[in-house]
Amino acid sequence: MRTALSAVIVSFLLVSAAHAASGYVNVLEPYNYTVYNNGTIYLGNVGPGQPFYVTISSTTSNSTGFLLNYGWNKLVVTGLPSGWIGVNSSLNNQALSAKVSVAPLASNGKYTFKLTAINIGNYSKIGSVTFNAVVNVTPNVFSTKVSPLRVTTGPGQPADIHVFINNTGVSDSPFVISIDGLPAWTYQSTVIALHHTSGSFLYPVYENEPGVYNLRLNVTSASSPLIHSSTNMTLVIKASLPGDYSAIGEGSVGFPIIYAPAYAVMYIIGEIGKLL
């Protein structure tokens, strides 16, 4: 029993010593993780064409446990799949960020590349640490929720749609919100929901002509049209006397200038009607 226990302790000490001798890397983004030489980190999901960052701390320690604030001076990307683009980190920052851009037409699946933390000139006598990074390429890197799905408003009166985006991927690439189904409405809103976070965004819809409009609200990654979500909704434009009065103030109803004083009063009536 003692022999087996001693063997386990010796094995643990040898592994720990090997790690200490080769150094370690504290990964900060896309999440906190400590990796050793020849280790592997799974980063998560990323969409085709999307860029993402791997950020590490420059701090590490040598084989004696002495803390080195700038032990790592650079983070280098190698071994990327064909069509992918890597940009090494800048030198001598407290946080070292390497950028990787996925090929626009990358097939779904897991991909592996290498990252190396370098001590320039081995000044601190800790060598370098090379580790594997794994990402899963898929267009399913976010989810959306739209509220309300049916909106009623007056001609020329904007209505706000709440668009909720949950970014489950590792990229901070922006999303573009747009809508199909309105004759002259082409407004697009570019928003950012950072990786592993959620955000709620207002998107206005607007139409002058009364009617029922079947719309499709779209959320698309700015990096690739393959990363896309659509939600069907309905916009009802109802004409009403208070609504028409209110629309005067928005410039949606045209009248001869000689009637301006009368229509100013009508606008005030329309605004009062909103409060009742």
Give the secondary structure arrangement, pairings included.
Layout: H1 2-22, E1 24-29, E2 33-36, E3 40-46, E4 51-57, E5 60-61, E6 67-68, E7 74-78, E8 85-87, E9 95-101, E10 109-118, E11 128-137, E12 142-147, E13 150-153, E14 159-167, E15 175-180, E16 189-191, E17 197-205, E18 211-221, E19 224-237, H2 241-250, H3 260-275
Describe the structure.
The chain has helices at 2-22, 241-250, 260-275; strands at residues 24-29, 33-36, 40-46, 51-57, 60-61, 67-68, 74-78, 85-87, 95-101, 109-118, 128-137, 142-147, 150-153, 159-167, 175-180, 189-191, 197-205, 211-221, 224-237. The protein is an alpha+beta fold and 276 residues long. Helix content is 17%, strand content 45%. It folds into three domains: 2-137, Immunoglobulins (Immunoglobulin-like), CATH 2.60.40.10; 142-148 and 155-234, Immunoglobulin-like (Sandwich); 240-276, no CATH class. The chain is built from three helices and 19 strands. Helix 2 (241-250) packs across helix 3. It starts with a helix and ends with a helix.
Approximately how much helix is present in the residues?
10-25%
* Helix segment tally: 3
Distance between the termini: 85 Å
Number of strands: 19
- Overall pLDDT: 85
Structural classification: alpha+beta
Q: What best-fitting shape do the alpha-carbon axes yield?
A: elongated
The number of domains: 3
- Computed Rg: 29 Å
Instruction: Please name the CATH architecture of the largest domain.
Output: Sandwich
Residue share in β-strands: over 45%
Strand order of the largest sheet: 2-1-4-9-8
Give the ordered list of helices and strands.
HEEEEEEEEEEEEEEEEEEEHH
Largest sheet: 5 strands, antiparallel
CATH superfamily of the largest domain: Immunoglobulins
Task: Give unreliable regions as ranges.
Answer: 1-21, 246-260, 262-267
CATH topology of the largest domain: Immunoglobulin-like
